[in-house]
Hints:
By secondary structure, the chain is α/β, with parallel strands linked by helices. Helices cover 18% and strands 34% of the residues. It has helices spanning 59-65, 99-106, 146-153, 193-199, 215-228; strands at residues 3-16, 19-25, 38-43, 73-83, 86-92, 112-117, 137-141, 161-168, 182-189, 208-214, 237-242. It is globular and about 55 Å long.
Amino acid sequence: xxxxxxxxxxxxxxxxxxxxxxxxxxxxxxxxxxxxxxxxxxxxxxxxxxxxxxxxxxxxxxxxxxxxxxxxxxxxxxxxxxxxxxxxxxxxxxxxxxxxxxxxxxxxxxxxxxxxxxxxxxxxxxxxxxxxxxxxxxxxxxxxxxxxxxxxxxxxxxxxxxxxxxxxxxxxxxxxxxxxxxxxxxxxxxxxxxxxxxxxxxxxxxxxxxxxxxxxxxxxxxxxxxxxxxxxxxxxxxxxxxxxxxxx
Length: 248
C-alpha cells in the first residue's frame, strides 16, 4: 500500500538560481525505489497551515472526494535521495506563478506538505527508468528532469557510456553531475535542447534513451530519434513531465 505522510522541512539548500534542495523528515513509512522515483506532493490551500491528507487505502478517490476549496494542490516530483525517515526533493523554481515553485521559494524549517509515495512493503514503484543492458545510454531533459537524471546517473556502473543533454534556465544552473564511466554532458541555456540532440554525433548502436521534459519538446526529440535515426520508440522512455500552458 502507498504511504501518505505529513512531511516537515528540516533543511533548505539553494543549489543555483533555479534549483533548491529541500530535506523533509517524517517519511519513515516510505521507501524510495531509487532512479526516477516519482511521488505526489500535496500543498495546503490558502488559509490552511497544513494540507488535508487523503486516505492511503484509496488515496486518489479520497483526494477527489474532498471539497474544491479544501482539496490540496497536487504535483508530481522525484525523490532525489532518501536516508531513513528523511528525503530530499529538488525543486525547479519558476517564480511564484506555479504553486509548487511558490511553496518551495518560501519554504523554511518547520514548513509542511503532504507526500504520497511507495510504502515500505509496496512492491509497485513509480519508476520509468528500465534500461536492460544497452551498449550506451542517452539522457535528455529540461530543468524539471534534472533531479531524476542526476539520480539515475549515480547508479550507472563504472564502465557505462552515456550522453547527457540538459536544458536549464540560467547559466548558473550548470553543475557537476554524479557521472560514472564515460559520460559526456551537454548543457543548453533557456533553449536549444532538441537542436543539440539533432546535431550530436552519437555512438553507433541503439542505446537506451530516457527523455523527460516539456511535452512538445519530448515529441520533437522522439520524432528525431525514431524517424531520423530509426530507433524503436517502444524501447525507450519518453515522458512529458509538463505541458506548456496547462497545470497537472
